[in-house]
Each structure stands twice: as structure tokens, then as C-alpha cells.
């Protein structure tokens, strides 16, 4: 027995992958090894999962595994370059996407990388003057700012550094997914397919303008390391999880908030294993919890302590507008290569969630194959929930009520979008939530009556799947549910942080990894079946099948050509900005016209040329009164009330730019008539750019005196 125990210890890693992860039975293992794995592997206490025609994989050699990871990193980087086709000669002044959000993210990263050593300055970027803590009005992107600061120290300019991070966000996502896939027992084919389906999912192409949503490289590692921490509870697992957790949270506030429901699902799957722990394991888990709480606090604290003078929370109409529907998961983005315009009638912003045809077929095929081929699936199909026919009909009716609630929410969102492009009404959202809640509570109540206790009535991990796969099924279902208005609408009012999420459909970025992993499982099963049927030597057959599957998946996920736009340039305003930089009496400036978002972003990007505080701005949130200010200052130039509002904000100078070519002729006439009708002192005029001094607020005289503009909008 001692010899068998020693042998089990030597092969613990490979056996854990084979038996604890891939779902192979413990019956073919030595008794001591089977007992050891049953007690220590994730999902301990679960009965073995029979798997048709599946054998434990051999333990990979360290050298071969290193070669695989280096090769996969090179492959994902090569595909990223082929798909994005970056203009390497112009990386210092062009970015992918559009001249909107990408320019803002680049501005935040430039400011952050320049002020990493001065926290007070980091959170007070010079826009929206005199609003404090302006960086906290959107994602601060601390982690990427640190990386860009490091590249700047090596002599790389900011724009090129941003483009490099953008490219690496795809390659790193693919590599991390393939790395985790190999750690849990997938073969070479499955690991590569997992990385492809995760890194190049159509939804990620649709989010190419939102850099913070692309920073998902640590999602697979955080989920896997948390599962490993709860299963092994050793010091190495604690360190790995905290490092991955810190890197993930520093990248994006959106992803920092959305990762926690997934971690909660994994924790619930391990809850039974954590009831009887020794003191050493308890202390390690407690230390990991304290460390994670400190990391989360350090990330969230600047947002919670920001100036309370402006609202930084989202409201129900916003998240109801951008909730996902069932139709969203069949809607490919506009850059999808293989799909036409047949989904246009129901296309909505932020809701092109189609995971890709190869991902859908491989993942769905794998789950169906496992369910139909397992003894648990056969028993479930024979049992149909147990009880008599009336009881089974009651269970089905409860689920039908919940499904009806989801359908009501879907139709409400789609109809509201079709009528006025706005949010679904609160009454429809409440009805959808109520029906879903009643259906699920009824189903649980019937299950409790059948099984005798609430603990046994709650759904558990699918018995026909390995432990890790079952956890990902739970994560997938929870994230899909959180994207729906019926589930997110009530949680948005009560769950801390959810009231800062504008787009519930973005929970799909976590669902993508689950689907990609199951697609990798399906690719492994398909590759094994194909290899057995090829009349070739096993190594040749394996290479041919793997290469063919990887190429087919990559071809299906390849997008249409993506646009690379030029950054705003100073053009004729260059001399004016140089003159402003020499003026010591400038308190703050306002630049006009600015009725387009692109205009405000242009003035923000060019602000370092003069270095003066800017009253213009763009961010995830807007300070009180800013929209009212634009209503009186942007059509195309400030009226009398707009000038008073600017003076009350401490703005001392107005910069008027020539209208763009696309602007109408009457706007050009108004721009040039402004100089004679506004009564402002003109200080500078060159190349059609004019700078005016606003002067002090006019004195209040009699009944017709001007009142100070309100600060709330």
C-alpha cells in the first residue's frame, strides 16, 4: 500500500488532470491513487463520471509543454496581425476603431502614464474644469497605464505603445485561455481551439472601440486559479490567485465588477468541500480573502470617495436599454465575415453577441455528447424529475412560467427599441422579473417537497460533466442570466457596483470563455474520432487533424477589414495653441464648436499643446450642468447665457475654430458674425482661429439683471 501511495504522489498532477478534470473514472487507477484523487481533486466527494471511449491522457513532458506554449503564443500573435492588419509605418498616429471612445481611452492612458508617481494628479486630468477627480468618471485603466509608462521609459511613444497593447490584448487572451485549457487536461487541438474562440470571438470585434472590454487576458487564469485555491488550499495557490486577481482588477473597472459573480459560482461549487478544514487550510483561505478584499478596496476606493457633487451611477433606463435578449445571441457584429444583413431588423447597440458558428457547434456538440453518453444522462432522461405524471407536469409548468418571464422581457426590450430606440418600461421589466422569480421559486418548492430539504432541492453541478466543466456551466448560466433585464433590473438596485454598469449585455465577455472552453473540449473529441478513421500513422494523422480544425476555426472567426483612423492633429490651431501656452493669465479655456463628441475629444487630445485647463470634456459620466452648458454654447457658439455659464466655471478664454468642411454654410456665417456681436475682446487671430477673453461676469443691474447659472443641469 505504501508503494502505491508513493506512486500516486509521483503522478498526482497527471492523474488529477486525467481523472479529476477530464471526467475519466477512478476505477482504472491504483486503489491508493483513486482514493487520494477522490479526496483531493476539485469536486471531491462527487461520484466518478463515466465517459464513453475516453482514456486518461499521458502526462505531458515539460519540454514539449514549453514548446507548445511558445508556439501557441506565436500563433495567436501572428493571427492578430493578420486579422487586424496594423499599419506598422503609421502606428505613432493611427489607432484602430473610430475617432470616439478609442481616442478617449488613449487620452486617459497618456495622462495616467505621465502621472503614475503623483496620485493626486493622476485623478485630476485637466478636462471638465473645474470638476475634480475627473479620471474617476470613467475607467482609470491603471494597469495598462503602468505598461504604457514602462514602454515610454524604453523610448516607445504613447500611441505606438497603445497600439502594441491593443494587439497584445488579443494574443494574450488566446494564450491565457489555451494555457488554462492545457492545465485542465485538454489536448493540443482543444487548447488551440479554446484560445481561438476566446481571443477572436465576434463579440470582441464588435467591442474594438472599447479597449477596457478587450482586457480579458486574466479572466481564464483568475477563474482557474480560484478553483485551484479552493481545491488545494496551499501557499502557491494563494499567491497565484492574488496575483491574477490584482492584474485583472487593475485593467478595467467593468471587468473587475463582472468577475465576482463568476467567482461566487465557483465558491458555491466548492462549499461542501470547505465545511471541514484544518486550521492551516483555514488560515490560508482567510489570508487569501483578506488579500483579495484589500486589492478590491484599493481599486474601488477612488470611485467611492470621488467628489459627491456629481452623479456617477447608472439608472434603470440605461441598463434596460442595453440588456441582452435571446435574439442578441444570434446577432453577429457588422464586421463578421460570413453573415449578411439578415439580422438587421433586431440589431441593437452593444448586443451583437453571436459567439461564432464554430464555437456554437463545437461547444453544443460536446455538451450534448457528454449528456447522451453518460449514465447520469440516461438516468435523468428515464427519471424525468421523479414522482408521478402530475408532479412532472407541475415542474415543467414552473419552468414554463420562468421562461414566459424571460420572453416578456425579451419582447419588451425589442418592441421598445423598435418604437423609439429607448428602454423598456419599468412595468414590463417588473412583470418579467416577477414571472421569472415565481417560476423559479415554484420549481424549487416542488423540488424541496420531492427531496425533503432545501439543501437537496438546490441545483448542483451536472453529474454528467467533470468538476471544472460543471463549474463553467454554472458560470455560463449565471452570466447569461445577468445580461437579461429580468435578472439584472432588480440586482442593479441592490448589489454594490452593479449600479455603475450601463450595459448588462457585457457579462457575455465571461460567457465567451466558457463557450470557448467547451468548444475546445468538442474539438478534442472530434479530433480523436477523426484520427481513428484516417489510414495514416498516428503522429501524421494527429498533426493533419489538428491543423485542419485550427485553420477552419480561425477562418470562420476572421473579421472583415477593420478601420485604422488617424488621430486629431493641430492643423491650423498649432500657432494659436503655442501662443496660449505663453499666456500666464489663462485660467481655463473653452473650445468651440463642440456639438459633436469627436470635437470634444479632439480638444482633449490636443490639450498638451497649450497645457491649460479645459472646460470641454467627454467621459463615461458628465458633471452636473455640462449638458445644459453645451445646449447654450455649442450651436455653434455660446449665447449670452452660455457665456455667463462659462464665466461662472472659471473659464477666461474662448477659442473659436473654423467650421469643418461638412458643416453648413449658415454655421460658418454665425461663426464669423460672433466676433462682432458678442462684445468679447479678441486677443489672437491667425489661420482662421480666434481667441477671445471672456472678462468678468457682467454686474447685476435692476430687474433685468442676469442671474448666475445653476450648477445642476
What key attributes describe this structure?
4-stranded mixed beta sheet; 6 strands; 713 residues; single chain; two-stranded antiparallel ribbon
Mean pLDDT, rounded to whole units? 82
- Main pleated sheet: 4 strands, mixed
Beta percentage is: under 5%
N/C terminus separation: 78 Å
Task: Report the helical percentage.
Answer: 55-70%
Number of strands: 6
Which regions contain 5 or more consecutive residues with pLDDT less than 50?
A: 1-55, 701-713
Strand arrangement across the biggest beta sheet: 3-4-6-5
**What structural category do the secondary elements indicate?**
mainly alpha
List the helices and strands and how they pair.
Layout: H1 2-10, H2 12-21, H3 31-40, H4 62-84, E1 94-96, H5 101-114, H6 119-122, H7 142-153, H8 158-183, H9 188-199, H10 202-206, H11 219-232, H12 235-251, H13 253-269, H14 279-304, H15 316-321, H16 357-373, H17 375-383, H18 389-420, H19 426-451, H20 454-457, H21 467-482, H22 485-494, H23 508-533, H24 538-557, E2 564-566, H25 574-581, E3 589-592, H26 597-606, H27 626-633, H28 640-648, E4 653-656, H29 665-677, E5 681-686, E6 689-693
Parallel strand pairs: 3-4
Antiparallel strand pairs: 1-2, 4-6, 5-6
Amino acid at each position: 500500500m505504501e508503494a502505491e501511495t508513493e506512486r500516486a504522489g509521483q503522478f498526482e498532477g497527471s492523474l488529477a488532470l486525467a481523472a479529476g478534470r477530464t471526467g475519466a473514472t477512478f476505477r482504472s487507477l491504483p486503489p491508493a491513487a483513486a482514493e487520494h484523487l477522490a479526496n483531493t481533486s476539485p469536486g471531491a466527494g462527487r461520484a466518478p463520471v463515466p465517459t464513453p471511449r475516453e482514456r486518461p491522457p499521458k502526462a505531458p513532458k515539460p519540454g514539449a509543454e514549453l514548446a507548445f506554449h511558445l508556439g501557441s503564443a506565436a500563433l495567436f500573435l501572428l493571427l492578430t496581425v493578420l486579422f487586424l492588419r496594423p499599419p506598422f509605418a503609421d502606428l505613432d498616429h493611427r489607432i484602430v476603431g473610430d475617432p470616439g471612445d478609442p481616442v478617449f481611452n488613449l487620452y486617459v492612458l497618456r495622462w495616467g502614464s505621465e502621472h503614475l508617481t503623483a496620485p493626486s494628479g493622476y485623478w485630476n486630468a485637466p478636462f471638465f474644469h473645474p470638476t475634480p477627480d475627473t479620471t474617476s468618471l470613467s475607467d482609470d485603466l491603471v494597469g495598462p497605464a503602468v505598461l504604457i509608462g514602462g514602454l515610454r521609459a524604453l523610448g516607445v511613444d504613447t500611441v505606438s505603445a497603445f497600439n502594441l497593447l491593443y494587439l497584445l490584448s488579443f494574443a494574450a487572451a488566446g494564450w491565457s485561455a489555451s494555457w488554462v485549457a492545457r492545465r485542465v487536461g485538454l489536448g493540443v487541438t482543444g487548447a488551440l481551439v479554446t484560445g481561438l474562440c476566446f481571443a477572436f470571438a465576434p463579440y470582441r470585434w464588435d467591442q474594438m472601440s472599447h479597449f477596457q472590454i478587450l482586457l480579458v487576458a486574466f479572466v481564464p487564469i483568475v477563474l482557474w486559479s480560484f478553483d485551484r485555491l479552493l481545491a488545494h488550499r496551499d501557499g502557491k495557490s494563494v499567491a497565484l490567485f492574488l496575483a491574477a486577481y490584482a492584474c485583472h482588477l487593475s485593467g478595467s473597472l467593468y471587468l473587475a465588477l463582472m468577475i465576482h459573480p463568476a467567482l461566487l459560482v465557483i465558491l458555491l461549487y466548492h462549499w461542501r468541500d470547505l465545511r471541514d478544514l484544518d486550521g492551516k487550510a483555514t488560515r490560508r483561505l482567510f489570508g487569501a480573502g483578506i488579500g483579495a478584499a484589500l486589492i478590491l478596496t484599493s481599486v474601488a476606493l477612488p470611485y467611492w470617495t470621488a467628489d459627491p457633487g456629481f452623479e456617477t451611477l447608472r439608472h434603470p433606463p440605461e441598463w434596460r436599454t442595453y440588456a441582452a435578449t435571446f435574439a442578441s445571441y444570434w446577432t453577429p457584429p457588422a464586421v463578421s465575415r460570413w453573415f449578411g444583413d439578415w439580422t438587421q431588423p433586431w440589431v441593437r447597440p452593444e448586443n451583437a453577441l453571436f459567439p461564432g458558428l464554430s464555437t456554437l457547434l463545437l461547444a453544443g456538440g460536446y455538451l450534448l455528447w457528454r449528456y447522451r453518453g453518460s449514465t447520469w444522462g440516461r438516468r435523468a432522461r428515464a427519471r424525468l424529475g421523479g414522482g408521478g405524471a402530475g408532479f412532472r407536469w407541475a415542474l415543467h409548468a414552473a419552468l414554463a412560467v420562468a421562461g414566459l418571464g424571460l420572453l416578456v422581457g425579451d419582447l419588451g426590450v425589442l418592441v421598445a427599441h423598435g418604437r423609439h430606440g429607448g428602454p423598456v418600461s419599468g412595468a414590463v421589466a417588473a412583470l418579467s422579473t416577477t414571472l421569472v422569480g415565481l417560476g423559479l421559486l415554484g420549481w424549487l418548492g416542488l423540488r424541496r417537497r420531492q427531496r425533503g430539504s432545501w439543501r437537496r432541492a438546490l441545483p448542483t453541478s451536472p453529474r454528467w460533466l467533470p468538476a471544472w466543466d460543471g463549474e463553467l456551466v454554472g458560470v455560463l448560466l449565471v452570466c447569461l442570466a445577468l445580461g437579461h433585464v429580468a435578472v439584472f433590473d432588480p440586482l442593479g438596485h441592490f448589489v454594490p457596483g452593479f449600479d455603475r454598469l450601463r450595459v448588462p449585455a457585457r457579462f457575455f465577455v465571461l460567457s465567451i470563455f466558457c463557450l470557448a472552453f467547451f468548444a475546445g473540449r468538442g474539438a478534442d473529441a472530434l479530433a480523436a474520432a477523426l484520427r481513428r478513421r484516417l489510414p495514416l500513422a498516428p503522429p501524421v494523422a494527429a498533426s493533419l487533424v489538428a491543423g485542419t480544425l485550427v485553420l477552419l476555426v480561425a477562418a470562420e472567426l476572421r473579421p472583415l477589414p477593420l478601420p485604422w483612423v488617424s488621430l486629431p492633429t493641430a492643423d491650423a490651431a498649432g500657432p494659436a495653441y503655442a501662443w496660449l501656452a505663453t499666456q500666464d493669465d489663462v485660467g481655463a479655456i473653452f473650445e468651440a464648436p463642440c456639438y459633436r463628441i469627436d470635437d470634444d475629444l479632439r480638444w482633449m487630445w490636443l490639450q498638451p499643446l497649450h497645457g491649460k485647463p479645459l472646460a470641454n470634456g467627454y467621459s463615461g459620466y458628465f458633471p452636473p450642468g455640462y449638458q445644459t452648458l453645451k445646449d447654450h454654447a455649442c450651436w455653434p457658439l455660446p449665447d449670452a447665457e452660455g457665456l455667463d455659464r462659462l464665466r461662472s466655471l472659471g473659464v477666461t478664454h474662448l477659442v473659436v475654430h473654423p467650421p469643418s468642411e461638412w458643416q453648413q454654410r449658415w454655421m460658418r456665417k454665425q461663426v464669423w458674425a460672433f466676433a462682432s456681436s458678442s462684445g468679447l475682446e479678441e486677443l489672437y487671430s491667425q489661420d482662421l482661429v480666434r481667441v477671445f477673453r471672456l472678462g468678468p461676469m457682467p454686474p447685476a443691474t435692476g430687474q433685468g439683471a442676469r442671474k448666475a447659472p445653476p450648477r445642476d443641469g
